[in-house]
Automatic annotation (TrEMBL):
One of its GO terms (molecular function) is homoserine O-succinyltransferase activity. Pfam families: HTS. InterPro entries: Class_I_gatase-like, HST_MetA, MetA_family. This is Homoserine O-acetyltransferase. Substrate binds at K163, S192, R249. The lineage of its organism: Bacteria, Bacillati, Bacillota, Bacilli, Bacillales. Keywords: Acyltransferase, Amino-acid biosynthesis, Cytoplasm, Methionine biosynthesis, Transferase. Its main location: cytoplasm. Transfers an acetyl group from acetyl-CoA to L-homoserine, forming acetyl-L-homoserine.
Amino acid sequence: MPINIPPQLPAAELLKKEKIFVMDEERASTQDIRPLNIIILNLMPEKERTELQLLRLLGNTPLQVNVTFLNTATHESKNVSKTHLDSFYTTFEQIKHKRYDGMIITGAPIEHLAFEEVDFWEEISQIMDWTKTNVTSVLHICWGAQAALYHHYGVGKYDLPQKCSGIYTHRISDPTINLVRGFNDEFNAPHSRYTAVSMEQIQNDPRLTLLAKSEDAGIFLVISDDNKHIMITGHLEYDAGTLAEEYNRDRNKGLEIDVPKNYFPDDDPTKQPINSWRSHTHLLFSNWLNYYVYQETPYEWVYF
C-alpha cells in the first residue's frame, strides 16, 4: 500500500531506503482510485520514531493511504520540536468536522496516572467519542488500548508488581476471525508496560472478544463486537532494538529494572536482539486495513 505523506517528513527518506512504497501528492492525484484516509493520534514522546514504525506497516498492502498525524492541543510535547509539530501535525479542533476510514491511537508513558489525572484526558475522551461516528475502525495500542477499554467499556487498569517487559508467546483463541487470519496458533509480541487490565472483566463483557493472550503477559488482543475498536496491549510496531533502548534508558535513570524477558540472546544485554514478531505485525496491520477498514468503510462519506 503506497502511503501518501509530505515529502519533507523525516520518516519519508528512511522509508524509501527500506524500499517502502512512498507516494508524493502529485503522483497520488493522478490515480483514479479512492485512497484510504487514516489518522494517527501519536501520543508517544519520540514521535518521529513512532511515525516511522507505523508508516512502515501502513505502506505494505496494495491500496493507497493518505496519512494525517494528530497531536493533543492540551498537552505540550517535550521530546519533539515545535517546528516538526507545526509542519506535520494537526489538532482535533481542525479535523473534527471530517470523517476517516481508520484511526490509530498510540501508547503513552503515563500508566502511573489514573486516567482522569492525565492532563489531556478530557480531550482524548472527546476524540474517542468522535470516533463512534467519524471513523470506521480504530486500532488502539498499549496505553491507548487501556484508555479505550476504560472509556468505552468501563474496564479499569491495575498496577503490576514489576514492569511487564520482553517478548512473550501468545495463543490465538479463534483463528477464523479476520483480524488474525493467517496467524500461527502461537506468535511472539513485545510488551512494555507497568499496568494491566482484568481478563475476567473482558471475558464477561458480551461486547468484547479476547482474541489472543499470553500465559505470562496476560491479555494481548481484544476486539469489540461491532469491529469498531481493536485493542492491542503490547507493541507489535516496535523495532528489534526498541526494548533494549528502553532498558538502557531506565538503567541510566537509576531505576531497578529487570532485563526484558526472552529478548536478549542468553539474557545478555550486550548481545544484539532479533525481531521475532515482524511477520505477524505486518499481517495484523494488513488484516486490519483490509477487513476492518477497506471492506467496511463507505466509498463516499455522507455528511449530515
